[in-house]
Amino acid sequence: MFRGASSLSLDDKGRFAVPTKYRDTLLSEDQGTVICTVALNEPCLWLYPLAEWLEIESRLAKISNMNPRARRMQRMLLGNATEYQLDKNGRILLAPSLRSHAELGKKIMLVGLMNKFEIWDEARWHEQMRQDTELERLGEFEPNDDLDNFTL
Prior knowledge:
This protein is an alpha+beta fold and 152 residues long. The chain is built from five helices and eight strands, in the order ββαββααββαββα. The strands form two sheets. The protein has a six-stranded antiparallel beta sheet. It has a two-stranded antiparallel ribbon with strand order 2-6.
């Protein structure tokens, strides 16, 4: 399970070092193999351990691609999915197309969300957090049955 947010740097080649607290898990469970793809509704990337991604691919394969919405989702997720292997220094080299989609600068945020990570441009991440906090304060998040009985 991944949690927390880490501020990281992209080098000139587009690489970032996965924090040690996550690296050990990725290396032991999937030999350091991860899949990165675009997020569907936000300007960030999703990074999955291989085993998690294979489950998603299996579920995507069961959806009829005759449905235009399903086809768009498959196209975005699968068409942009790129497999990476952590290098000997625990780094991942992100493809230019993925960096461009998320408009990543030199400073990024790696955000643990249980089974995956989000990768954000650092400034955009802070702005998103500000917006989310403001929406929550104003009670303007859309209702969701899954959250009706959720308490903290």
